[in-house]
Amino acid sequence: MTASASRAAIAFDRVGMAYPGQAKGSALILADLSLTIPEGEFFVLVGPSGSGKSTLLKLVAGTAFPTEGTVTALSQPIKGPDRHRGMVFQSVDGPLFDWLTVQQNVGFGPKMAGAGKAEQAAIAARFIDMVGLKGHEKKFPAELSGGMKQRVQIARTLAAAPRVGLLDEPFAALDALTRRVLQREIARIWQETGRTFLYVTHDIREAVLLGQRIGVMSRGPRANIRHVYEIDLPYPRDDLDGRFAEIVRKLEGDIEREASGQWAEI
Whose CA is closest to 210, among 176, 249, 247? Predict the structure, then answer.
């Protein structure tokens, strides 16, 4: 699968970002950041802690706004959250509605969009099956493991039919085996749906397993995207491949240089 070059799903144009109330004269969190993510691409962001990765996601989600420059989604300025951009969070508990079943949670987006009951059920069934939860439709979140809850969250986000999926370290709270399984699953789901994914992670191996391109953030303040790597490896990816290991080493070297520079200034 390749990303479409015909239209930008997300575009940052010379973006600078300071949070409201930040002391006058303080350095920007993000500065002069420009990046274009084509429709259909799986783009992953990595970088040292405090480099502004989650802040960048908030700008795309429409829950924060740039101090300088512009951020657009599907060629339109971002003015707030909308149904074309769906978020998958790191937390496996908070995002789900505890009083709704798996089927009801996944069908919530279509319901809010005005779909009838039969259509809601059909959409929910499609994405429940896609994330491997067929047979668990009538369960409530309290009856699910952490990995299953995260599958529900992914299914619910996709069922709402966003053009852009935003994923903020969605597997960080899971055990290593579950994380490994879901990494493979999210790559498969991306290929099946053709959606644009913007994915934030601290896990370099995860980044190389998933991303068509990987952006390495510089250390903050005034963070930017230091390098963008094109990952020319077929899916599903083999982490025992020598090319895979070489890309991981390059990324680790970049991030270590950024982090050590940050620590040297403390």
Answer: 247
Q: Are 213 and 43 in contact (CB under 8 A)?
A: yes
Other CB atoms within a 10 A radius of the CB of residue 192 amount to: 11
Q: Which of 1-10, 20-29, 58-67, 128-137 shows the lowest mean pLDDT across its residues?
A: 1-10
Q: What is the pLDDT at residue 173?
A: 79
Asked whether 150 and 92 are in contact (CB, 8 A), the reply is yes
| 244-258: pLDDT as tens digits | 999 999 999 988 888
Report CA 250 to chain centroid distance, whole Å: 22
Pairwise pLDDT comparison (19 vs 151), residue with the higher score? 151
- 72 forms beta bridges with 11, 77
Cα 119 → chain centroid: 27
Task: Write the pLDDT tens digit of every residue in 181-205.
Answer: 889 888 988 998 899 999 999 999 9
Residues 231, 214: contact at Cβ < 8 Å? yes
Which residue type sits at 31?
Answer: A
pTM of the model as a whole: 0.88
Closest to 258 measured CA to CA, from 226, 230, 233, 235: 226
Distance (Å, rounded) from C-alpha 219 to C-alpha 51? 5
